[in-house]
Amino acid sequence: MADSRSLRLCQGRRLAGRTHGVRQGTAAGARQFPWRPVTGWSAVGGLAAYRDGVTVIVELAAQFDERTWAAQTPCADWRAADLAGHLRCVADDYHEYLDDAPASRLARLLATGAHPDALARKLARQNAAELAALPDRPAAEHIAAFAESARSYARRLGPVWDMPHHRYRDALVTVGGMAGAACAEWHLHAWDLARAFGKEYRPAAPEIVLAGWRAGVPQRPPAPGPEADDPWLTLLLTSGRSPGWPSPGRGITGGLR
Known about the structure:
By secondary structure, this protein is mainly α. It has one domain: Up-down Bundle (Four Helix Bundle (Hemerythrin (Met), subunit A)).
C-alpha cells in the first residue's frame, strides 16, 4: 500500500511510549476541501456505534479458546487468531493515518484515484505484511491491545472531527468520516468472529454503521439492490461478505476486511 520508505509495519509496539498528535493543517487548507456530511453519520451516534463495535469484539473474543482461535473466518486464508492480530495492527494504522492527515500514506494512495479493486489489492498486501511482522503472541493479547488502541483513537476524534483526512477522486473524507470506516470495520470483524464461532451477529444500530461506511469508504459505495431495505445485509454484501457463510460463497480478500 505504501512505498518502502513510509511503510511502518505493525509490530505491536507502536503505541508504547508514543504520544499521538494530529497534523490538523491550516484553515486555508481546510477550505480547499468543501464537503457535505453524510446523512445519518454524526459524532454523537457514530462514536457510540464505534465503541459498541469494540466492545462486541472484546466480548466475542473472551469466548474463544485455543481450539476455536484456530477456526476459519469469512476472511479468506485467515483463522480467528489471524483476525485478532489484524485488528491489533489496523487499530494502530488508524492512529498513524490521523497523525499524518491529510498527507498520510493512506491519503497518498487514495489520492491516486485508482480503481477500487486495485486499492483493495494494495491494502490486502499491507495487511498481510503487517500480520507477518507481528510478534507471535496469544490472540487474547492481540485483542486486548486492539481494544486499548481503538478506544484511545475514539478519544482523539472530537476536536478534529470535521478536519480533512483524505480524499478519493471528488469525495472528501473527514476525520469523522474515517471514524465511520473504522466503525464499520469493527462491526464487520465482529460478524467475522461470530461466524467463526458458529454464531450470528447484527449491530444494534445497523443504519448508523452503514452511514459510517458511506462517510468513510467512498470508493466502495453500497450498490442498490433487493437488500437495500436491510442496512446490515447491504453492508455485508458491499464489503464482499457472503451472509450465508460458511456455505459456498465469496471470501474476503480486499483491503478493508
